[in-house]
Amino acid sequence: MRYRALVTAELDVEVLKKTVPEIDFDTAGYCVDHEVMESSALAQKIVPYDILISEFETVNASVIDAADKLKLIICCRGGVKSVVDLQEAGKRNIMVAHNAGRNAAAVSEMVMGYILDLCRNITKSNQLIHERVITSDHRDIPSEYKDTIWGLDKNSPYVALRGRSPKMMTLGIVGYGNVGRQVAEKASVFGMDIIIYDPIDASMATSESVKSVSFEELLKESDVVTLHCPLTKTNQKMMSYEQFRMMKKDAFFINAARGGLVDEEALVWALSEKEIAGAAIDVVTQEPIPDNHILLDAPNLLITPHIAGASDEVVRKGTEMVIHKLINFLG
Question: Is 306 a catalytic residue?
């Protein structure tokens, strides 16, 4: 028996065809033009297919009801509850799989970028140069240093923008799943001390180089706090006024998980009142961020548009994970 698969996720379909020749692959939706298919259109399209490989399309009851032949749904995301009706799939005995951790490497790379940026004033220096704040037609330093530094006095970039070395810092990771573990692995290469707290499993097993602590202890001891846990009913706004007060005054905060984990008014307060030294966030509670959002006026805050998990490696990794699931399905 040959199976037919509809691919709407952004994957390397040519690799799928070569690696799993037992399946006929067709493409539609986001895979073709980066336009998410409406559920009504997907319900019409899915009818003759045995397998659906999706990503952003919503696979609701109407889609599943229309898919008489459907046997397997692979959702190329870490979580599926928001886009796949698991109850309806269960009623039809349709297997549902997901690609947990497919973008863990990409997100962890971005987090290390934030740490280096916050510690070494990369973005701040770039802005000061482009805004002509620290440019000059005059040089007031000895000629023997003309090829090495921009100045030596207290206002010079060499002094005023002097950064901190991650090697001398403690990184606190909240959530020790796929992403958290890769962040710890990369940070350890930079010589950072690693402590972790996992809100789902507080007794999470760690290694010799990673110490498990309470949430309060992590906040008090860390020079950098980074969030990598899922958003649940019990941890909404887990970072609020009280938590930011616990952090060191010179500590940095990073959120590349979910915007709902953070009380955004509290974050603005913490930055404005210098309760923390700076922050970097890739997620907010309302995306895209509105023009009048309070975060846009917060000092010492880096904001990126939910792109931490967006790298070319994610497509390759996602394709590999789908291949393994298809091979297991074929038995």
Answer: yes
Residue of 258, 264, 273, 324 marked active site: 258
pLDDT per residue as tens digits for the range 170-214:
999 999 999 999 999 999 999 999 999 998 876 666 777 899 999
Edge-to-edge order in the sheet of strand 278-281: 210-212, 193-197, 170-174, 224-227, 252-255, 278-281, 301-303
Contacts of 80 (CB under 8 A, 6+ apart): 86, 96, 98
Cβ neighbours for 136, distance < 8 A, ≥ 6 positions apart: none
User: Residue 306, Cα to own-chain centre: how many angstroms?
Assistant: 7
Annotated catalytic residue, options 306, 316, 320, 324: 306
Does the annotation mark 258 as catalytic?
Answer: yes
pLDDT digits (tens, 9 = 90+) for 236-267: 999 999 999 999 999 999 999 999 999 999 99
Tokens of 185: 């692995």
287 has catalytic annotation: yes
